[in-house]
Design a protein that fits this description.
Layout: H1 9-14, E1 16-20, E2 27-33, E3 36-41, E4 47-50, E5 56-59, H2 64-68, E6 75-79, E7 85-90, E8 94-99, H3 114-118, E9 122-126, E10 130-137, E11 140-145, E12 151-156, E13 161-164, E14 170-175, E15 181-186, E16 190-195, H4 210-214, E17 218-222, E18 231-238, E19 241-246, E20 252-259, E21 262-265, E22 268-277, E23 283-288, E24 292-296
Parallel strand pairs: 5-6
Antiparallel strand pairs: 1-2, 1-8, 2-3, 3-4, 6-7, 7-8, 9-10, 9-16, 10-11, 11-12, 12-13, 13-14, 14-15, 15-16, 17-18, 17-24, 18-19, 19-20, 20-21, 21-22, 22-23, 23-24
Length: about 300
């Protein structure tokens, strides 16, 4: 099907609010902006633009065979018999239902004492090696994702429930028989267990001058398995670090130098960047996470 900008009726019907089919508290807003699709995550306010020609398709159904084929575009809009969008299948993973009306979650902010907030502090684990840390602050708690350092601030809604200050991200804590906090349910789906076994990784860093850091900065491209188009990352220098930004979702990761060509995320050294030079000494590639080899885009 030929897609002519954002002028077709299907494009117009794509505008609006969508609710995650599994997590009923998660919503996104989709609208046209400068002849592209803007997707806004309402739980954290993050926005990113989608190319309507290369990254979007419309279909009147989505079968299991379609999903397994790996030939889907990143954003597949599903329509009813009249061609009106009713769902969005995103990133070959998440199914969103289009809704007629969006009602923001009602807040019931309450105040807990410093002692009550301190009871939630500690590390929490999910899976083999995923950790978050929760610390008390003056009016609530701070959740830190240990894999990327992102911090999210929460305000109490009740004695055991919290809501993110800038969206619809809920936390629900559970107490053990002795009254201590043992678990937290994040986003109504991810169950984290409290642990005292977390050991912060020891990362040895080196100091690089600005010239050495800038040699690695730039735009890089890579095509993931099953994708029909290239994906891009942008690497820039901030102080003595490199910051990587993913073009498809806007997420950023800060990397510290371990050598002139090797970097890692300080809180999780499993996340690495290894830059590769050509015969002339210029950086032309970067191996990310010891897995994906990205090629530098000439500018």
């Amino acid at each position: 099907m030929k897609q002519d900008g954002l002028k077709q009726p299907q494009w117009a019907s794509a505008d609006g609010y969508y609710q995650d089919r599994q997590n009923k508290r998660s919503y996104i807003l989709i609208k046209e902006k400068n002849n592209q699709l803007l997707i806004k995550q309402l739980w954290d306010g993050k926005e990113f633009l989608v190319d309507p020609v290369s990254d979007v398709a419309f279909r009147d159904n989505l079968s299991t065979a379609d999903i397994r084929s790996s030939q889907l575009k990143p954003f597949e809009f599903i329509t009813d018999k009249s061609g009106i969008v009713i769902q969005l299948f995103a990133k070959n993973r998440d199914l969103w239902n289009k809704i007629n009306e969006y009602k923001p979650m009602m807040r019931t902010d309450t105040t807990l004492t410093p002692g009550e907030l301190k009871a939630f502090e500690g590390y929490y684990k999910m899976g083999d090696n995923n950790y978050i840390h929760i610390a008390a602050e003056e009016k609530g708690i701070i959740l830190k994702q240990m894999w990327d350092g992102r911090e999210i601030h929460f305000t109490a809604q009740s004695a055991l429930e919290f809501l993110a200050n800038d969206g619809n991200f809920p936390l629900k804590f559970t107490k053990g028989s002795d009254g201590t906090i043992t678990q937290v349910l994040a986003f109504d789906k991810d169950l984290w267990s409290r642990t005292d076994q977390y050991k912060p990784p020891v990362v040895k860093t080196v100091h690089l001058n600005q010239s050495q850091l800038k040699a690695c900065a730039g735009k890089y491209r890579f095509r993931f398995n099953g994708d029909q188009n290239d994906s891009y990352i942008q690497i820039r220098v901030i102080e003595n670090n490199l910051v990587l930004k993913q073009s498809w979702d806007g997420k950023e990761f800060k990397f510290v130098p371990q050598s002139p060509l090797e970097f890692c995320v300080k809180d999780d050294p499993r996340f690495t960047l290894k830059f590769i030079k050509d015969s002339n000494g210029a950086v032309t590639q970067v191996l990310a996470f010891n897995r994906d080899l990205w090629n530098r885009v000439k500018e």
